[in-house]
Design brief:
Largest sheet: 3 strands, antiparallel
Strand content: 5-15%
Bound molecules: s-citryldethia Coenzyme A
Shape: globular
Number of strands: 6
Number of helices: 18
Radius of gyration: 23 Å
Order of helices and strands: EEEHEEEHHHHHHHHHHHHHHHHH
Helix content: 40-55%
Oligomer: single chain
Length: 427
């Protein structure tokens, strides 16, 4: 099949260079830049990589214009309605929905790895009581590599797989320990007699003095939230995991790097920032009008948290599902209906505002998620930990895909040097 190419002409010297055009299953193709520097003497310049494809991936596809999100080809709304988080984990890791026996074996494997070394308890108890749970999570996940010397050979597919299973299994346990330490509560051991999400909620909220009563409504809401946060293509934290892993770093260190990147308020930290913003409107007398005016004011660093997206220039399909979840569940979960109503009013106000419409700024996954998490009695400083717990499967699936990619090599971007011209040290 003849290669499709594009011709680049350098108008400073009339030289032309043919570059190959690469096409995928869905979405825009890419211009292959191999040979660009050799042919033209130039690199490309793309701050924030907004126009750069960093890899070929078959895990997730996003159509930002139409607000479409597919995991291994399955639309996110169908997965949220019909699947389970653990089944989505299998799908992201292995590329297909599991047969019954495959799912049963996978579930059993994950259950057998939910416990952590007892020293992890001492490790977490070493943090101050008021340490931010994300600080504890970054440190603890990175430290996991000090416990698993038996499976750190990244060139061994079995080691890669057992590390993926350990991370998926242990993140809920570690996340609950971060919360329990913060609250001065005893750590709860995992209970393999209940489901993945139920186990997490039990480790978070059970007290040894009495039997824990599960809430199927709350568990279902959290299951859907976890599915919606499981993966999202080459976002900042996933790209961080790939870049960290591209040097050969072990999976625990690579995932810890992803957790660190997710923590930023422009990324996974936005869910906490949204609630702070809504409460500021509710409690400080700020109005929706003044909040929107601040978000539009170029002299004010404030942005409307939970709005906008590098890829979605339409509604984030996940935000739509979570908003629907709010409508369904707030009454059942005794959730904060006024805060949800305020969020709806804010969304409505932006739909009628030229600034937001011109820039195609719509609610993203973080805009409504905090309202559901609060209704589940998850404290605000745990919101990004919840995001990290759900996203771990996406991160490790991309890490695995990268190691199976024949084109994989260490990531090393270039730059435009704008510093001093060469000069001699004063004699
Ligand atoms: C996540 O990448 C992913 O997939 C991430 C994620 C995932 O699942 O992994 O989807 C999760 O991180 C969602 C995003 C959560 N962050 C927030 O809600 C923080 C608020 N949003 C913004 O910070 C911003 O929208 C970003 C960071 C999300 C996207 O930034 P971009 O793509 O760099 O957009 P930009 O800065 O180029 O903005 C374009 C214009 C600018 O105005 P002009 O200079 O053209 O006049 O839109 C404005 C921006 O000032 N703008 C906003 C705004 N977001 C963009 N103005 C007010 N409020 C906002 N939220």
């Amino acid at each position: 099949m003849t290669k499709k190419t594009i011709t680049l002409t350098d108008n400073t010297n009339g030289n032309s260079t043919e570059l190959e055009l690469l096409e995928g299953t869905h979405g825009p193709g890419c211009i292959s830049l191999s040979g660009l520097y050799k042919e033209t003497g130039y690199f490309t310049y793309d701050p924030g990589y907004s126009m750069t494809g960093s890899c070929k991936s078959s895990i997730t596809f996003i159509n930002g214009e139409e607000g479409i999100l597919l995991h291994r080809g399955y639309p996110i709304d169908q997965l949220a309605e019909k699947s389970s988080y653990l089944e989505v984990c299998y799908l992201l890791l292995y590329g297909a929905l599991p047969a019954e026996n495959e799912f049963s074996e996978f579930s059993s494997t994950i259950k057998n790895h939910t416990m952590v070394h007892e020293n992890i308890r001492d490790f977490i108890n070493g943090f101050r009581y008021d340490a931010h749970p994300m600080a504890m999570l970054v440190g603890t996940v990175g430290a996991l590599s000090s416990f698993y010397h038996d499976s750190l050979d990244i060139n061994n597919p079995k080691h890669r797989e057992i590390s993926a299973h350990r991370l998926i299994a242990k993140l809920p346990t570690i996340a609950s320990y971060c919360y329990r330490h913060h609250r001065g509560l005893p750590f709860m051991y995992p209970d393999n007699n209940v489901g993945y999400v139920e186990n997490f909620m039990q480790m978070m909220f059970a007290v040894p003095a009495q039997e824990y009563v599960h809430s199927p409504v709350a568990a279902k809401a959290l299951e859907i939230m976890m599915i919606l946060h499981a993966d999202h293509e080459q976002n900042a934290s996933t790209s961080t995991v790939r870049l960290a892993g591209s040097s050969g770093a072990n999976p625990f260190a690579s995932i810890a790097a992803g957790i660190a990147s997710l923590w930023g308020p422009a990324h996974g930290g936005a869910n906490e920032a949204v609630i702070n913003m809504l409460e500021a409107i509710e409690q400080s007398g700020e109005t929706i009008e003044t909040t929107i005016a601040r978000a539009k004011d170029k002299n004010d660093p404030f942005r409307l948290m939970g709005f906008g997206h590098r890829v979605y220039k339409n509604f984030d399909p996940r935000a739509k599902i979570i908003a629907g979840l709010c409508h369904e569940l707030l009454a059942d979960l005794d959730g904060d209906q006024p805060l949800f109503n305020l969020a709806l009013e804010l969304e409505q106000a932006t739909l009628n505002d030229e600034y937001f419409q011109e820039r195609k700024l719509y609610p993203n996954v973080d805009f409504y998620s905090g309202i559901i998490l609060r209704a589940l009695n998850i404290p605000m400083n745990m919101f990004t930990v919840m995001f990290a717990m759900a996203r771990t499967v996406g991160w490790i699936s991309h890490w695995m895909e990268m190691h199976n990619d024949p084109e994989y090599r260490i990531g090393r971007p270039r730059q435009i040097y704008t510093g001093h011209a060469k000069r001699d040290y004063p004699s």
